[in-house]
Amino acid sequence: MKPFAIETKHLHVSMDKTPVLHSLDLSMEAGRWTCVVGPNGAGKSTLLKALAGLIPSEGQLLVLGQPLFEMSDKDRAKRMAWLGQQESGADDLSVRDVLMLGRLPHQSLWAGASSQDQSIVQAWIDRLQLGHLQDRSLLQLSGGERQRVLLGRALAVQAPILLMDEPIANVDIPHQSDWLQTVKQLTQQQTTVVSVLHDLNLAMRADQVVLLHQGRLVIQASPDDPLLHQALIDVFEDRMSIQRVTDQWVVLPM
Amino acid sequence: MARLWLFVCLNLWLHAAGAVTVTDDRQVAVTFTQAPKRIVTLLPSLAETVCVLGACDRLVGTDKHANWPASVKALPKLGGLDDTQLEALVRLKPDVVLLAKSARIIQRLEALGIPVLALEPQTHADVHRVLQTVAAVLQLPNAQDQADAVWQNIQRQVSQAKLNIPAQAINATVYLEASTGGYAAGEVSFIGEIMRQLGLKNIVTSGMGAFPKLNPEFVVRANPQLIVLAQPMVTHLSQRPGWSTIAAIKNKRVCTFSSAQADILVRPGPRLGEAAQLISDCVQRSFPA
Amino acid sequence: MIPSRAAVLTWSLLSFSLLAMAMGLMTGSHGWEWGFSWQDPIVQDIRLPRTLGAWLAGALLGLSGALAQGLFRNPLADPYLLGSASGASLGVAIALTMGLWGYAETGQFSYAMQWWFRLGLTGMAFIGAWVAVLLTLMLARGAEQTLRLLLAGVVVGVVLGAVTSLVTLAFPQTLPAMQSFLLGNTTMLSGQACVMLAAVWLLCLALSCLLSPLLDGLRLGEATAQSLGLQVKPLRILLLAVMGLATASAVAQTGLIAFVGLVAPHLVRSRLQGAYASVLILSSLMGGVLLTTADVLARGLWAPHELPVGVLTGVLGGGYLLWRLHSPSVKAM
């Protein structure tokens, strides 16, 4: 059993005095891909923000064995990279500059980008096939290309934990496939990946699935677990079926 | 000159008929069948004109800036130069309203049927003319003679002031500052005219307008021997960059005035004789024998 | 290390600055004259402080504008966003009124009034600008939400503007001086003022460059900036303070000058991409060039009359924005 990268006990999160997440007990293994799913309003994005330390929470939250609140902002940033759902603006930044921003947690105020930062960014540009776009500004890219760039920004942080909220909403199938491969490679290199996906078919490829409903944890299990299947069908009101097709779980609307 | 004669003749003829017609500064002819007994003025110099002609008791209301003579201060105040309190004015039931020709309230007053006379003295000649016009409107006995007497008095005051200017100050170069924004007063301004009559030379010549906003460098270059501040708000002139080299500042020949005195200097009105005396006094102090 | 485009821009702005300053030294109450002598006291005492001061004030406004646009992620942000313009105007109006009051009775300044005048119009403008910024921050309850800050800034600006109007209504003699302040001018700049402006400029530039990673991170949104380890709230307050200091110092010396703080960052960002630190420095240089040029024109076009420099920056700045509206990139939207 691998050690836990993220552990929570009785995690409560409130926004504007309204409770959003109730008493969550989660444990995400290191070097694994965990996917958070659930109907709209279940609190998935909120959970990710709470895990990233971007919003306050009550209860216990351990990251790599250390309570989150004992960490300095820089340490937290170096350990957890977060990719939000709608990263705004930055239209006049070039692709390269956006990826360079991912190196901020590793830069001190005085020094700027080091040559190491430059080479890491270059490596990710190549890996994500952004080479031909690297000097263009975000304004000039398509939705899918922009999302790959923003993903690259999160990857450039090179953090052991990667939290991603809907990272491939507008991305075409070939690049979805690339993303899946990237995640696989990351987990093989012991990076912990936690993602929120609305596409259940992709979610069922993860190592672990966390199902949330109305701010509560319904179940956390492997995709093969029949209890998970039943829970999914219950939560989504019997409007889907889960089939096994050539070695993968496929979720179909009814 | 011809126009003056025509005016006088017209007046005499109408006077014979019991009515007086005058042309105001808008070139509008206004007729008065009787002498107005209730007068409102909306320009301080016009209140002063009425009082200097001895008809101060006929004033029933003034603008809020009118403050001479002292009895005027007790009169109802009707707002500033552009925000007249119309209701209060109407309630005073004036027989005529004397105001500047640029006042925006003129149309409203005429629409309400209130007689309006627009007079805006801006030069010395204007002051004389306004005296004559107001005297005619007031239907004073020997109106023209009275107006001329007042004017002679003013001229006497100016001449006296000129005589008091010490010899070493004649033709001295002067810089006049007339408002808080650093606007200079040129030769063609009212106070510039007073300067000229006193025999002082303004560094701001007639081609540059009445109240130009000048580059301070110009003043430093002109190096005036005397500085007159007609506005009581100006601070430490020597702190202005480069001004400590100006002769007037080095020799401490700077004339400053209190707020009440400044009023006399900047209002083109019948107190221009006093204005000349004020300046002359200051010049005498600045150029001791 | 600096990308070449930024280097080219830096050198050209520095050259333009020197050119504009040279012209400034040659422009006086007789219009343009070729050549000047360093010995001439007019050059030393009047033209040099004005020209240098104009450049420094422009540099401060350019820096402040770049900070505003970076902090609020809004291309229309300018240094006067947080009500500092209205605050400074009110400060000046009060100072002028106090002076009037003190002088009215005696023709002499009382001791209390002398203190006011020692503080001077400059001091009061500076204090007024700061009071407005603090009011805005209090009204917005801290610097957390940019929208709330913007709205609070508008409210403070409007309210203080109304109070200023009331003051000038009660004391109309202050109007010409107020107008002079509101339209901006470099007339009163002395050597001392230049030293002060230079010190403030260097301080603000250093601090902003140091804190510029926040502005870089903010370009991707506040949440992302936070996730990158930037302490958004305290850094933002610090940058707002720097912005306030830069704006207040410039306004106190030269009055309200329009558009320089808005246009300088625009011009720079249209040519430059990359880390915000370079945007900050170059916006500052651009602001210096813009204001010095405007000042030279203000002094030279109609000598010996002086146009208020704020009118020129308004015309030039407005013209530039109009041109941008018609530019192809905007038309494509």
Description:
The complex is a heterotrimer of chains A (254), B (289) and C (333). Chain A is 31% helix and 30% strand. With 254 residues, chain A is an alpha/beta fold. Chain A has a single domain (4-253), classed as P-loop containing nucleotide triphosphate hydrolases (Rossmann fold), CATH 3.40.50.300. Chain A has a six-stranded mixed beta sheet with strand order 6-7-8-3-9-10, with helices on both faces. In chain A, strands 2-1-4-5 form a four-stranded antiparallel beta sheet, covered by helices on one side. In chain A, strands 11-12 form a two-stranded antiparallel ribbon. In chain A, β7 (161-165), α6 and β8 (192-196) form a beta-alpha-beta unit. The relative contact order of chain A is 0.17. Chain B is of the alpha/beta class and 289 residues long. In chain B, strands 4-3-5-6 form a four-stranded parallel beta sheet. In chain B, β3, α2 (44-52) and β4 form a beta-alpha-beta unit. Chain B starts with a helix and ends with a helix. Chain C has 333 residues and is an all-alpha fold. Chain C contains 13 helices and two strands, in the order αββαααααααααααα. Classes of the chains: A alpha/beta (254), B alpha/beta (289), C mainly alpha (333). Chains A and C meet through α2, β6 and α3 of A and α7 and α8 of C.
